[in-house]
Each structure stands twice: as structure tokens, then as C-alpha cells.
Amino acid sequence: MAEAKAEGVKEVHVLWISEGMSCDGDSVSITAATQPSIEDVLLGLIPGLPKVHLHNKVLAYSLGGTSKWGGPDDFLAPFRKGLTGELGPFVLVIEGSIPNENIDGEGFWTSFGNDEQGNPRKLTWWIDRLAPKAWGVIAIGTCATYGGIHAMAGNPTGAMGLADYLGWNFRSAGGLPIVNVPGCPVQPDNFMETLTWLLFQAAGLSPMIPLDAQLRPTWLFGKTVHEGCDRAGYYEQGDFAKDYNSPKCQVKIGCWGPVVNCNVPKRGWMNGIGGCPNVGGICIGCTMPGFPDKFMPFMDEPPGGTISSAITGVYGKMIRKLRAITNETLNKEPKWRHNRPELTSGYSPRYPQRKGAE
After folding, report:
1. b vs e for 190-226, b when ≥16 Cβ sit within 10 Å of the residue's Cβ?
2. What separation in angstroms does the CA of 43 have from each of 47, 165, 281?
3. What values do phi and psi take at 94, rounded to 5?
4. Residues paired with 94 in a beta bridge
5. Which of 19, 170, 219, 293 has the fewest CB atoms in 10 Å of its CB?
6. From the CB of residue 35, how many other CB atoms can be counted at a distance below 10 Å?
7. Cα 170 from Cα 26, distance rounded (Å)
8. Does residue 321 sit in helix, strand or coil?
9. What is the pLDDT, as a whole number, of residue 237?
């Protein structure tokens, strides 16, 4: 991966387009971030970060009135300045999957704003022009990263992820590949942490962001759900839930946690609390490139789960019995703890106590 130049920029715009095939769930999710919060970033409360201007139709408070960029009528102004190079360094955030406009017939699948004649501008028109000029490009949520729900088998739009559209070897003006932060919706702190890394990198204060082969930040998606799950110990003992009221491992009722790259059980959802298996929900693989098709039907035992759980079940029963014996032993106090008149702890004084000594 080529090393991006540390430019040391002082001011960055975040051009956030959620007009992909999307429910705006990722924008809404970000309002729950705490590490850091979107407010901390925008108010300049994190030392070393460049000054950040956010342009998002859900999150941008400037839409409520006038600002440097005007009110609602001028929302597209910074996006147009990004096209002409007048804006300065910016990070492009894309939310929602990208439809194939080569098969849109005489219409279009999705648009963002209008042209000078009042006709809709296709989302792909903006991506084609803004992505190469952006310092960095982030795909937020599974729809934008890999296509998600809209790209499942039988869809009529030919929807895809941003890397499928721009190419997996795409590089931004800052020399960065696309950064994928999947999730349906995205875990809020995962995205804000990633954005903060890129902002520090733009300021010349951090190295190239480490990404895996699927362009996900490695420190966030380098482990499986199972490795961070509160229920993992039950799997290891071959002790499985039979319904959703059980605190035990949920593999046999549909959980894909052992093979899915995601940190939600370990990180929680809001302020460290929650996370699908932590609160009784199975993992359905929503951070994975193959979601949803390769993980359906949901709530059925995953292929391979029958074999692995059967093997675990055989030795797990023996392990549980042996541990129960040990537990019974360790669940008792040592015999020398008593209130009788003799000391039986094994203590042997170095100097015998003199008779009559107090």
C-alpha cells in the first residue's frame, strides 16, 4: 500500500452524501458516538485535529439557519466548490449502495441535487467527479462498502459497494485507498474512530491507516465476533442455547459469530453497552462482504455449525464434569479456618513462645 503524504492540513471539510440506496441509518447511528462524539470533532475539542466542517443533511446543524454555507437552499454549495477545487482539502463520505446507472433505461436510480436546468444529478455523477479530488474517501455502512441489502440476489438495480464502483485499486488525491467501515448500521464509535484517524493523518500526526484485504480498519475488524463474545466460553464447553431466552452460546440457533469479522460484542453499541450477542441477538454477519445472501436464511444453524458444535459437545460434556469436580473443591474454605482453641494452619514459629508470656 502506497504511503500517503503527511500534508499537515489545518482545515478539512467532510462532504457526506447519503443519497446512495440507503435508509440514512448510518447518519442516525453516528449521533450515538462517544469515542469521540461528532460534537467533540466539530467543536475542536480534540487536540491536534484540523478544524472540521461537516456537510451532511441529517447531522449538519447549519441546515437550521444561516451560516458560512448558507441555509437549506445552499446545502450543495460546498459540494459544488469541491468540484471546482475552491473548497480546500475534503474527505468524501458515501452512505448507501451504488446503483448501476448503465441499466437505468431512460430514468435514474438515485440522485443528489439538480443541475442548472433543474434536472436531477445522478449520485454516480457526483462520485465520478468528487472521489478523485478528495483527500480521502470513506464508505460508511455495509450498503456503501459492499452493497448490502440493496445488492442481494434478485435486485433490479445492479447495486454494488463503492469499491466495486470505483475499483478496488482506487486511490484518492491523498494517496489513500477507499476506507470501508461496514455495519448495518455502522457501529458509531467504529466510524468516528476511523474518521479521527484520517483527520490526524491529514494533519500529519498519524501514519497510513492500516486496512485489511476488504479495506476495513484492521484494529476494528481483525477479530471475530466469537473472540470478543461474552458467550464464547459456553461454546468451548459445548453448552448451547436452544432458544433466545438462554444466556448460552447461540450458534445452534443461528449465530454466525465464530466466522464474522466484527468487534461489536467487545465494544458494545452505545457507550460500551449492548452489542448483538450481548443482548440476546444472533450475529447475522452484517459487516461481511457476503451479507446478506451468504448468511441466509437467518436463525438457522450455520453450515458447519452442526459439525463443530457436535465435536465440541462430545468433549465439552467431559470438560464440564471435570470442571464441576474442581469447582466443588474450590468452593470450600480451607480446613484450618476455624474458631477452635488450636492453630492448624501449619504455622511453625521460629522461636518457641515462653511460658507465661502475654
Report:
1. bbbbbbbbbbbbbbeeeeebebeebbbbeebbeebbb
2. 11, 34, 36
3. -115, 125
4. 17, 139
5. 293
6. 14
7. 23
8. helix
9. 84
Distance in angstroms (rounded) separating the CA atoms of residues 55 and 43: 14
Q: What pLDDT, on the 0 to 100 scale, is given for residue 5? A: 47
- Which tens digits make up the pLDDT trace of 238-272? 889 999 999 999 999 999 999 999 999 999 999 88
Q: What angle do CA 10, 11, 17 make, to 5 degrees?
A: 150
Coil/strand/helix, residue 349 = coil
Strand order in the sheet with 90-95: 51-55, 11-17, 90-95, 136-140, 179-181
Angle at which helix 123-130 crosses helix 77-84, to 10 degrees, equals 40
pLDDT tier at 6, thresholds 50, 70, 90: very low
Amino acid at 222: G
Which long-range contacts link 350-354 to residues 24+ away (Cβ below 8 Å)?
none
Q: Residue 21: which pLDDT band, with cuts at 50, 70 and 90?
A: very high
Instruction: Tally Cβ neighbours within 10 Å of residue 286.
Output: 22
The DSSP code sequence of 222-241 is SSBTGGG-TTHHHHHTT-B-
pLDDT digits (tens, 9 = 90+) for 291-330: 999 999 898 888 766 666 666 767 677 777 887 888 888 7
Contact 44, 73 (CB under 8 A): no
Pairing of strands 120-122, 90-95: unpaired
